[in-house]
Amino acid sequence: MKYASFEAAGLSSWGLVEGEDIVDVGEILRDHVADLKDLIAQEAYGQALRARASAARRPLSTVTLRPVVSKPAKIFCVGHNYETHRQETGRAMVGHPSIFLRFADTLTAHGAPILRPKESASLDYEGELAVIIGQGGRRISEADALRHVAGFTCANDASVRDWQWHTQQFTPGKNFPGTAPLGPWMITPDEIADLQAVTVTTSLNGEVMQHASVADMIFPIPVIIAYLSTFTSLSPGDVILTGTPGGVGAKRKPPVWMKPGDIVEVGIAGVGRLVNFVCDEA
């Protein structure tokens, strides 16, 4: 199934994506399930399917999509998790995933702008597969990790590189508002036959800039979930950006920075296509 968060007629809701329509299940269940994060926390998928029959259908073209999970308690990001990206950055091999965090107000939606901040023109793309946690937990084993996944979506970990490189800490360059598109929807794990065969492709103005298989990750998704849940409890709706392939703009010669008017797309086979345009922050 595909679940999406959206706005229509000034109201926030969520629903099931079917073809070119969204079934507004959130309107039916408004008194019981507040949003998609609440659906995940309650594991109320059965309620959603039962409500589907009487819910209004809205063409996707008539609604405004929102980030799949608008207010996750935690957004984890994994750095240098594809070998091609590790090599292009000259990073040494490490024994554990490199983890940094994003704030929820960095999220933006499919079809919405990525904001280039006033402080920098070094805005880079990073297409990624994102994991949305379903059942939370602590010290989750690698063997059980995928059972804790509610679904997958597309992400763009757009980075303000000069601020990222101020020190060895990534936080400033990864947390400018409106720089982390997430969407367009969450697809449930049963829709993906072979997770390792999934490919991540990033295009800028129609030109392919990144392309790799999930199988090329240095630390696979079960390893990431097990590692994160060792030092903190994972909660329903938490988001994990699992790393970007090689081909980032910063390592091209000359560097390729996103600029106002650019269109950037993150296509993930079997998951979806996240499309955004770039504009300057007001």
UniProtKB/TrEMBL annotation:
Residues 74-278 form the Fumarylacetoacetase-like C-terminal domain. Coiled coil: none annotated. The keyword Nucleotide-binding does not apply. It holds the Pfam family FAA_hydrolase. One of its GO terms (molecular function) is metal ion binding. The keyword Protein transport does not apply. This is Fumarylacetoacetate hydrolase family protein. It comes from Phenylobacterium montanum.
